[in-house]
Amino acid sequence: MRNQTSAVRRDGRRQFIRRGLLLAGGLALPGLPRGAAAEDHPPIGTYPAGVQGSTVTIGIGVPRTGTYAEQGEDELKGWQLAVEHINSGHPLIREISPKTKKGVLGKELKIVVADSAAKPNDAVQAQQRFITENKVILMTGSTSSAVAVAMNKLAQREKVLYVTGISGSNDTTGKDCVRYGFRQNFYGETAANAIGPVLLKAYGKGKKMAFMTPDYTYGHTVTKSTSEYLQEHGGWTMVTNQVSPLGATDYSSYLTNIANSGAEVLLNVNWGRDAVLSTQQAKQFGVIPKMKLVIPYQIPFLAKNIGAELAEDVYAATDFWWTLEDKYPLAKMFVDAFRKKYGYYPEWGAENAYASFAMWADAVEHAGTFYPPDVIKSYEAGRKLQSMVGEVYFRKEDHQLVRPVVIVRGKAPKQMRNKEDFWEVTEVVAGAPLMQKPDAFGCKLGDYT
Amino acid sequence: MITWPNFVSQLFNGLALGALLALIASGLTIIYGTLGVLNLAHGAMFMLGGYAGFAAYQASGSFIVAVLAGAVALLVLGLLMERVMVRHFYARPHEDQLLVTFGLAIVIVEVVRWVFSSESKTVTPPGALAGITPLGFMLYPTYRLAVVGIVAMALLVLFLVLYRTRLGMIVRAGIEDAVMVDCLGINVDRVFMVVFGIGAMAAGFAGIVNAPIVSLTPEVGEAVLVQTFVVVVIGGVGSFPGAVLGGLVAGEIISLTSMVNPGYAYVMLFAAMTLVLMMRPRGLLGAQGRE
Amino acid sequence: MSWDRIDSPRRPLLVAALTAAALIAAPFVLPWLGAAPNTVNRILVWGLFGIGFDILFGYAGLLSFGQSALYGTGGFVAAYLLTRTGFPHVVTALLVGMLAAAVMGYLVGLVALRRTGIYFAMITVAIAEMFYFVEFNPLAEWTGGENGLPGVPTPSLSVGVTTLHFTSGWALYPFLGFCYFVGIVIALRIVRSPVGVVLRGIRENPLRTAAVGHDIHSYKLAAFVIAAAYAGFAGGLLGVLQAFMPPEAFTFETSGQLVIQTAIGGRGMLFGPLAGAALWLFLQDFLQGPLGLGATWKLVLGLVFVALVAFLRDGIIGGIRNVYRLVVRRKGEKAAAIAAPVKTPRAAAPVYVRARAGNGVSGPIMQTIRLTKHYGGVAANEGIDFSVEAGEVRGIIGPNGAGKTTFFKMLTCEVLPTAGTILFNGCDITGMGVTEVCQLGLTKSYQVNQLFNRLTVRENVVIAALAALRGKFRLDVMRRLGSIPGLDERVGHTLELVGLTRRGEAPVAQLAYGEKRRLEIGLALASSPSVLLLDEPLAGMSPSERAETVRLLKSIGQDRTMIVIDHDMDSLFELAERITVLQEGRVLAEGRPVDIKANAKVQEAYLGGLNGNPA
What we know:
The complex is a heterotrimer. Chain A is α/β, with parallel strands linked by helices. Helices cover 43% and strands 17% of the residues of chain A. Chain A has two domains: 49-186 and 324-403, Rossmann fold, CATH 3.40.50; 189-318, Rossmann fold (3-Layer(aba) Sandwich). The N and C termini of chain A lie far apart (58 Å). Helix content of chain B is 73%, strand content 2%. Chain B has helices at residues 4-35, 42-60, 63-84, 94-116, 142-164, 166-176, 178-183, 188-210, 220-235, 240-260, 265-279; strands at 132-134, 139-141. Chain B has one domain: ABC transporter involved in vitamin B12 uptake, BtuC (Orthogonal Bundle). Chain B contains eleven helices and two strands; from the N terminus they run ααααββααααααα. In chain C, strands 10-11-12-7-13-14 form a six-stranded mixed β-sheet, sandwiched between helices. Chain C has a four-stranded antiparallel β-sheet with strand order 6-5-8-9, covered by helices on one side. In chain C, helix 2 (37-59) packs across helix 11 (252-265), helix 8 crosses helix 10 (216-242) and helix 11 (252-265) packs across helix 12 (272-288). Chain C is elongated and about 90 Å long. Chain C starts with 11 loop residues before the first helix and ends in an 8-residue tail after the last helix. Chains in contact: A-B, A-C, B-C. Chain A binds chain B through residues 64-66, 69-70, 215, 240, 242-245, 249-250, 252-254, 256-257, 259-261, 273, 276-277, 281, 284-286, and chain B through 1, 3, 5-6, 9-10, 13, 16-17, 118-120, 132, 134, 138-141, 143-144, 213-215, 220, 254-255, 258-259, 262-263, 265.
């Protein structure tokens, strides 16, 4: 009867499905690389598949569109320069990575680039493709910390190393740290602890401060670190914190609130194009120069975009500024090489990018292999490295580079020696005292394999 | 924070925000009211007006030329779009109309991205308007004040066209009953084309006028589109006074909510729109039975 | 009998088998075409997301721009369980996410479905934006805000001695492929169920679907919840696929991408979204990668989309199907091209009539007491007292503007009276609603044909018959149409009554006008009403068609009460036993046809004067 036959058909279907599943399950193996492992390391992530040939590939996900596009392009130039230098065995690279001759362990570096538009989803998608298709042995790219955090997790899952691009959030080597991720640049906590004393000295105690914060991890952690420092050490009060979405274009509502808040100092944590727009509009609404502007986490090309008049006397904490060439010989080499290739003075995004690759090359050379756990241990060895800002080393507990923070102040237009001489370096603050205790932010590094 | 000076400032700021929304929304509402087509490309037109003006500004250095260019370019585009594409969709179900204008919006945005790249472009306001005006209770950028004036003038012109010219009368009749207008022997095809052109022009004009306030990117139209829906719904579909009132209401909702918590400003708009759609679907000034 | 449908596959088993075969073959074939495993996996997730959306949009005709809200809800609930609470079992978490999304879909549907068409679309946009905001801000603790929820694990399955780990790339593919397969099988069942048929009716003509006795709001809500469930499960799969649940799942762009993919691939065919996603992702990879066009890929996609919407309404799959049809012509269509003559049906045994004529119920079967309708200042109907006995055939006439159609609309509860009462079988039905009233046994055939134009004659009648057999709402999504007892008999009998038996497989568009009018009556008859209203059944007919129709109406009227409005007084006087005359919203006269003809007031109303004085 009808009911019986349909029951039989249903069962037939189920069996069919089950068999198909078993067959398909057998196909669950193709993702793993076949063949004997190189040397005596078992396969993991893209190793050894990604290093079989004479080249190794690095996957870069960088914003080329959107709010952080300008900074992203600058970072990309830094990476490209680093790859060029590593492949040719440039003297600057050899200062940072003494064992480098040509390439990394003799293999030529190649890069593949995708536009992340500062969105974690896009970055992750692109890098997943790079992993399966190009077998990248290293991933990088972030300008937004949201991307860095997502990439951290991807790296840990796929067992492919990741070095951050620009990432200012405490969380990247804090609660969202991973064994497979490393960060070179400065971040919220160190920025706050470096710029705090400078601000207190310049402006005194008991000031009222207003914050403009972009609504994501970077914004919240930088605002938190900075406001806490100033409150604790200088008795400043935060009268308002205007949180705006990433990519906002009209700041009139926020600035109106700020204008009426009675604040004396405006700390703008917005980044990229958001920083440019919010600062310009702050001027239009008379908030600046009524209040003093502070940029706790500096943005590449900010001064160029808002103009020297607006940047005058503004204090900012940054990773690098080209006038450091007078102080550090490696900085001079870098600035010269960059200017020669690209025709302008490098910003800190490019410098950060360059340094991160150079340090990776060093870690790999010292490990003698691309095998990720060994490279990780090489990073964690705590070797002292030379960089564009002096001697630095990686902290093994959270994979954060211990390095100085540079405090700059905007020059008056008439004091600028050339078109790009926006900032004066007022001090270079040593890094170690600025950092939180390794476990203070809840960092738990994961497994090696 | 809720203080009296802040309240007054935000109230004023809301006026400025609302004026612009009113202009864009009046374009959308006359298109929807007359043609029955919800123009999902309206935000893209706003953006394109900005870019057309930007290009003209680069070429000529004159802001006036830029504004004219933005308006005229969109008038032409609107006429073309109706004639070539939209016209063939009147007989099709509403969903198809939504889809085709949605698709055209994407095409417009991507063409702009292709020609101008994704980097943001700035349009500097004319020197005379670039300063700051003290208003007593707050300092306000002169250009934004000027925008209120410019938009008010544009709305006045639109009002005069709609209510004092023969064409306007036909358009208003068409909003009420397009079939009847057709039966009266008036070339409804031409009327529709003109309405679409005028609606597009309003969006484009708003786009270039707004450009000096925020920077131009290919994405500026998206947010504007959704906000414009809200205004049209609140004010009442097909109603020009409704669009103006709706715009002002929306502007005030944004700025007054910002006083308390800026993060919630735009969500309040959407909540207001949902509320209106549930309680009084014809909006504040819309005609009944237009659902 | 077979339920052959334009957009419902003839042999679901064949479709399912082909799908399974394609899914199994894919990992071997696709790499040759240069497809990356991650891309294929993404296509499957979008495809699954789209199945539910297609049921909502392609089948029920509800264009929602807010599916991202449900996608994100399901995804985040699943991801939260798996990452923050350490819930061990991936598949169960996915199912929980799906359930959460379904519940959320129900709540959202309650709000959004109160409006239709463009307003519905706009509400869904607003809801999508609100969900995104809420996910981002107030709920950031649970959703990770802009970071999303990283660390979503992949599923493993223990089969006897070994454990299968579905990790990533081709290793994850079998799991996703299986989920998609199950999704398709369930969807095939749903669209071929009575619920699926009713949804199609709602898409084609919501007014009539309600008028034949279906609670369309509940069906729409059901479609919405189904779409939400698919969306929620797909959202969970996204998290698994990326090892990370992104906030982008909630954005308007996600909803927009779904809509575009479905439109490109083809709506109402279940596989459309898969094809659309394949095209989208393929273009994205191909144009950005090998061709190096960068951001222009989206421009190409936009142009393709506009072209398809403009010229190829049925999308890619629809286009393929249409070409296939052209090549393999169906015999049924050829044969149905000949119009069948009307056969006056023999008086069949009245098996299905609800209340038999003259079965001893005391009092009139239908009655109105001082029924009034004002539109603003205009009194369309004023204080009408009217009653009809069971089994009677009553005619209603009156000059234009007399308020006849308004009267009918009130009788069927399409329109709310301003004042007065309507009684049906002694019950007060004032303000009940078309659907309830139809279920009680009162239906109407419309003045302007309200048919399901893109369906066949048979399918039209089935929709009406389903309401009679299943009540106004039943959620029998898994039931086969063929397993409903009495459906075939009822449909066959109705077709026979209106003389359309031989035209069953013809699409409505191919019918002659007279046949369409007969179908119109047939729809009202299918539920075996005890009272049948007919609004100008003879309008637009030639004399011979009129005569045929009058014969038809006479035979129909034998078994039930009928009230007929028409302007053709000769036909009406022949058909009706009593006539009511309306003028300017009031009852002018009532009586036997012969008396009405001679009534002076009636003559004056029509001709404007006694003694033949011209008006």
